[in-house]
Design goal:
Layout: H1 31-40, H2 43-47, H3 66-83, H4 88-97, H5 106-116, H6 125-136, H7 150-156, H8 162-168, H9 173-177, H10 183-207, H11 212-215, H12 219-231, H13 237-267, H14 272-277, H15 286-304, H16 307-329, H17 336-341, H18 346-356, H19 359-370
Helix pairs in contact: 1-4, 3-4, 3-10, 3-13, 4-7, 4-10, 5-16, 7-10, 10-13, 10-15, 12-13, 16-18, 16-19
Bound molecules: magnesium ion.
Magnesium ion (MG) binds next to loops.
Length: about 375
């Protein structure tokens, strides 16, 4: 969107708080477009293809990966940003980068790594995403990381403890002052929720871990399914699921746009600074919020705690724990480039190495370290 067409409360790229290392302004694209492009060209972004959310990579080719999830988040976030005349490129950059710091094996991997790191400052995927773009990507001659703008970095840091916020400085200042991030960051955050609630239903049904009958206990699903069946009474199987899910996404996105537009109108923030001081303006209506929470609870009980998911998570946890313990016991097992860095903050360097692994690389590395017939 042309800058002049942006709302006053949007993050205008020419008013960015800038990059950590000074660079010449980009030609033919905005600062936030440059951020988005750098993220897409990063190694961590390519790795998202082989990292998972709920299902482990080898379980099937049709399940979401972190990459397809991030693309769905970006697509939803851009639609919302465009409708509200906010900066699409910043929203997209944040959406594409939001999961860069995830470990292999989804939440099981993150929980295991956090437990391993308990006495070494813990592990948190949001902080790790920031670490990836600030430090771990090594592509540019003049600096470590991607040298993104303040606004993209701040948007990536969705949660942060006060203790970590004090260590991080300005990018985490809002957690100490209890301020809001840009509307663009708020959108990326809720687009994440819309994307995973809906694709986890789809993946849950596809895997056979959830049944249509079961999921009809969630009000929002039942309501949209009956809308589809009223129009196509004989529809069944995958088309019924997709027609239902796409209507749900539409309802959620439309509600988010409508409610947020009303909030923005009422609060009328004249700048991003006023956005920071206002309550969160990007929001669902109370009814849709409640239905969305109910769906989340449904997925927690029935999918994320399904015994087959739990079994896979237990294996994933063991892989991460074994790797961490083996490297901690003997850093000479680390690849040379990590050995050099491991002289200081050994545990953190090991966590960086493990967090950067894809699902299949973690399994391969585990075999290499523990199977005597593997080299
Ligand atoms: Mg996500």
């Amino acid at each position: 969107m042309r800058d002049s067409a942006l709302a006053p409360c949007a993050a205008h790229p020419e008013r960015s708080r800038g990059r950590r290392y000074r660079e010449a302004p980009p030609r033919g694209r905005s600062e936030y477009q440059r951020d988005r492009d750098r993220i897409i060209h990063s190694t961590a972004f390519r790795r998202l293809e082989y990292k998972t959310q709920v299902f482990v990579n080898h379980e099937g080719d049709l399940f979401r990966t972190r990459l397809t999830h991030s693309l769905e988040v970006a697509q939803i976030a851009r639609s919302v940003a465009r409708s509200l005349r906010l900066d699409e490129d910043l929203t997209e950059a944040i959406a594409l980068a939001h999961d860069l710091g995830h470990t292999p094996f989804g939440h099981a991997g993150q929980d295991a790594l956090h437990a391993c790191m308990r006495r070494h400052g813990g592990f948190e995927h949001n902080l790790q995403s920031l670490r990836v773009v600030d430090l771990l990507e090594q592509r540019y001659a003049a600096f470590d990381g991607l040298n993104l703008t303040f606004e993209t970095r701040e948007g990536i840091l969705k949660h942060c403890s006060r203790q970590n916020a004090r260590a991080l400085g300005d990018v985490a200042e809002r957690f100490l002052k209890r301020r809001r991030p840009s509307l663009e960051a708020q959108i990326a955050n809720l687009a994440d929720e819309i994307a995973y609630n809906n694709h986890d239903i789809d993946d849950g049904l596809r895997s056979g871990l959830l049944s249509l009958e079961q999921i009809s206990s969630a009000k929002i699903f039942a309501r949209h399914q009956s809308l589809v069946l009223r129009q196509y009474p004989r529809l069944a199987g995958r088309r019924l699921i997709h027609e239902t899910v796409r209507r749900m996404i539409d309802t959620l996105v439309t509600d988010l746009i409508r409610t947020s537009a009303a909030n923005i109108r009422k609060q009328a923030p004249a700048s991003t600074e006023e956005v920071r001081l206002a309550p969160p303006l990007i929001a669902f209506s109370p009814r849709i919020r409640e239905e969305s929470l109910e769906l989340k609870r449904f997925l927690h009980h029935n999918l994320y705690r399904h015994y087959r998911v739990t079994r896979m998570s237990a294996k994933a946890r063991r892989v991460v724990e074994n790797l961490f313990e083996a490297f901690m016991a003997d850093t000479r097992l680390l690849p040379p480039e990590f050995q050099g860095r491991a002289e200081n903050h050994v545990a953190r360097v090991i966590a960086d190495y493990i967090a950067g692994m894809t699902d299949r690389y973690a399994m391969l590395e585990h075999r290499r370290l523990f199977a005597i017939d593997e080299t």
